[in-house]
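Need a sequence for this fold. Nothing fancy.
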């Protein structure tokens, strides 16, 4: 495979790498809701593993996002918001992993960070849709 072909494959991997961190972080948030309701259920280790996987996947997705666009800082507002929100998701993922690793007695910060991550992921998905499918890709007139 020539360099252009290999680089072309790397550029196309960004959309393929985003789905696992999305699923893992959202499942971690959902599982944490169950921890809040029934702490004796023993779900804390599952939440921790989901966060670790999401954090690793988010870092990989961010790297492939930069490969996808290159070290180019241009683009419209949606592109800039998508790029930097993706970086924020990767950084917050690492922070979440550190919070989960230290296993605090109070899970308040972890829960705030997970809720923030869920909101950031929803915004990121919307922005990615704007980039891939055009403005107002959802067809909702009030947006």
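Here you go.
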């Amino acid at each position: 495979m020539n360099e252009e072909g290999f680089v072309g494959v790397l550029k196309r991997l960004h959309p393929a790498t985003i789905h696992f961190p999305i699923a893992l972080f959202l499942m971690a948030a959902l599982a944490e809701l169950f921890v809040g309701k029934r702490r004796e259920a023993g779900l804390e280790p599952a939440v921790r593993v989901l966060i670790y996987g999401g954090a690793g996947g988010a870092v990989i997705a961010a790297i492939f996002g930069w490969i996808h666009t290159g070290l180019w800082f241009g683009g419209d507002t949606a592109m800039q918001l998508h790029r930097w929100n993706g970086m924020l998701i990767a950084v917050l993922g690492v922070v979440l992993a550190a919070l989960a690793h230290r296993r605090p007695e109070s899970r308040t910060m972890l829960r705030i960070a997970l809720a923030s991550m869920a909101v950031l992921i929803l915004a990121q998905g919307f922005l990615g849709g704007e980039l891939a499918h055009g403005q107002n890709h959802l067809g909702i007139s009030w947006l």
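For context: Helices lie at 3-12, 14-17, 19-37, 44-69, 77-102, 108-133.
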